Amino acid sequence: MFFGKNLRYLRETNGKPSQEKLGKQLGLTRSAISSYEDGRAEPKFDTLNTIANHFNVTVDQLLNVDLSKLSDEVLKQKKNLDKYIQGENLRVLAITTDNKQNENIEFVPVKASAGYTTGYADSEYISDLPKYHLPFLPKGKTYRAFEVKGDSMLPLKPRSIVIGEYVEDFTSIKDGMVGIVVARNLSEGIVLKKIYNRVPQHGVFVLKSSNLAYPSYEIAAEHVIEIWKFAAYISKEFPEETNSLSDLKEAFWRLEDELRDMKDHQQNSLF
């Protein structure tokens, strides 16, 4: 692990604060910083996370990457990606409101989905979309409605309408969260999937369908424009799924993850 070396490197290349000053910034003692840098002690996870956030790097980078060997440009790219993932002024969301300044729920039908991936930040494009209000949804959140295309997320039927809650910070996404993903390099442009967060390890999201006929795939985090957490749906048909089928899917997905991890381990062992 490179933790001690990286901590010293980050301290010396970010204003060169003393160990005592950095300790105060992090809520730690000078002796704790000294022990970490010299490899005489290891921090608890919450302390490790605090240090990573302070220097705008991931915990994985802090532990497993020799940051002193990365170029300034690579570090800048990593930091910009982290800011993008967390929604810090690098992603724009266009919305509309009614005459009482209440946010509308804009509806994106299938026929408009292709244009949405280019017009998502254009206020004029968004203002031309159909608008609705759904009083049963919790207030104080931003919602958007999307028409489901295809049968990859059975038991939801094609042409069902899914209402999504806007996710500003992608790091808040928990594995298995169902959501609408809007991305630049997806052939469909907009997809409803189960989302698995592999950004800290590989810089990607893994997207899985509930219909096992559709394979899972990865998408680079920087290509993701928006993510909307599943909040509700509207359908003419009531979806049903047996518990046995759900258990089979979970077993299949676990096996798929294990195979992916084995592949990553084999590739890493070659270098």
Keywords:
single chain; 271 residues; alpha+beta; 434 Repressor (Amino-terminal Domain); Umud Fragment, subunit A; globular
Describe the structure.
Helix content is 38%, strand content 20%. It has 271 residues and is α+β, with helices and mostly antiparallel strands. It folds into 2 domains: 3-70, lambda repressor-like DNA-binding domains (434 Repressor (Amino-terminal Domain)); 105-240, Umud Fragment, subunit A, CATH 2.10.109.10. It has a 9-stranded mixed β-sheet. Strand 7 and strand 8 (217-220) form a beta hairpin. Helix 2 (19-26) packs across helix 3 (30-38). The two termini are 16 Å apart.
In brief:
The protein is an alpha+beta fold and 271 residues long. It has ten helices and nine strands.
Do you know the CATH topology of the largest domain?
Answer: Umud Fragment, subunit A
Largest sheet: 9 strands, mixed
User: Could you name the CATH homologous superfamily of the largest domain?
Assistant: Umud Fragment, subunit A
Shape: globular
Multimeric status of the protein: single chain
The structure class reads alpha+beta
Number of helical stretches of at least 4 residues: 10
* Uncertain stretches of 5 or more adjacent residues: none
- What's the alpha carbon Rg, rounded to whole Å? 22 Å
How confident overall, as mean pLDDT?
84
State the helical fraction. 25-40%
